[in-house]
Amino acid sequence: MAGSTPDRLIAELDARGLSWPAVVEHYDEIGSTSDRLKERLRAGAVPWTVVIADRQSAGRGRHGRRWVSPRGNLYLSVLVEPVLPPRLLTVVPLVAGLAVAEALLEWGADPRLKWPNDVWLGERKVAGVLAEGVAGEDRTSIVLGIGVNVNADPEAEAPELGGGAVSLHAATGRWVEPVAVGAAVLARLVSRLASLESAGPGPALMAWRGRSIAWWGSEVEVVSGESLVRGRAVDVDERGALLLRLPDGATVAVVSGEARLVRLAADPTPEVT
Ligand code: BTN
Fold it and tell me: How far is the CA of 76 from the centre of ligand 1 (A)?
């Protein structure tokens, strides 16, 4: 497809019936699209402003990690300002992850969500979302930074990822234009956020559960800052918090953190009597 990246993105969105209401800014290379979008926000950017880049030299992941950003993948940040009660804003990152997973279905993938918003293909991560809230005087803006390994394997540049990452291309054999994935993600995000505003978190969370990895009932560990919580994964609540059942039977809601499945060395075989 010919034309500049913003023109192509806007044309793809038009084809999906969406007339994009804000500026799309494109860079061949930038430090981080989310950092650039925050600069634009300070200068008065309106909701749905997009910054997209072909590669990033200082891509940021969750928990201060680096997001390896070679050419061939999607690096997109979008400004959203959903009209929601403040206590429900924590569900927005999950909804963004859901939008990414639903977009990847278009290319024949079977994405799964790992709480809160990692997108996996098989046992490996294909996409991540970095949601950063920016409180203003009368509104809260959220910069959603979305990275999808579309065609390039980040491990070629960062072997330390140790087999944890995968690209859409490696999983499906298809070469896909990152900008096409960007349009699919934005279209899903618009529709999921509209439903969140009009119907509350129920429908999105139902869809999120349906796409989540099958770890319900299993032992999970969540690291959140200095603290670590371990328990059986039960569900997510209406804020998108992960509900863990502790050994004493109490249930705790963990709002943010890095979760991993605990593989028990010797799961006892149940006795059959
Ligand atoms: C994660 O750790 O899973 C989140 C990764 C988010 C990466 C994206 S790429 C576009 C945007 N710009 C950044 O610097 N980070 C996000």
Answer: 8
- State how beta strands 74-80 and 50-56 pair: antiparallel
Classify each residue of 21-47 as buried b or exposed e, where b means 16 or more C-beta atoms within 10 Å of its C-beta.
eeebbbbeebebbbbbbbebbeeebeb
Assess contact for 51 and 36: CB atoms under 8 A.
Answer: yes
d(CA 17, CA 63): 36
Atom index in ligand 1 nearest the CA of residue 69 equals 9
For 204-251, write each residue's pLDDT tens digit: 999 999 999 999 999 999 998 889 999 999 999 999 999 999 999 999
Whether omega before 116 lies within 30 degrees of 0, making that bond cis, reads yes
Q: What is the mean pLDDT of residues 75-79?
A: 98
pLDDT for 44-71, tens place per residue?
999 999 999 999 999 999 999 999 999 9
Q: If you measure from the C-alpha of residue 227 to the centroid of ligand 1, how many angstroms do you get, rounded to a whole number?
A: 24
Distances (CA, A) of 202 to 29, 134, 141, 142, 241: 39, 25, 22, 21, 13
DSSP per-residue letters across 173-215: S----HHHHHHHHHHHHHHHHHHHHHH-SHHHHHHHHHHB-S-
HEC string of 211-229 equals: HECCCCCCEEEEEECCEEE
Cβ-contact 73, 150 below 8 angstroms: yes
d(CA 47, ligand 1 centre) in Å = 19
| Full-model pTM | 0.94
Residue 106 tokens, joined: 């278009």
Query: How far apart are alpha carbons 19 and 5 in whole angstroms?
Result: 16
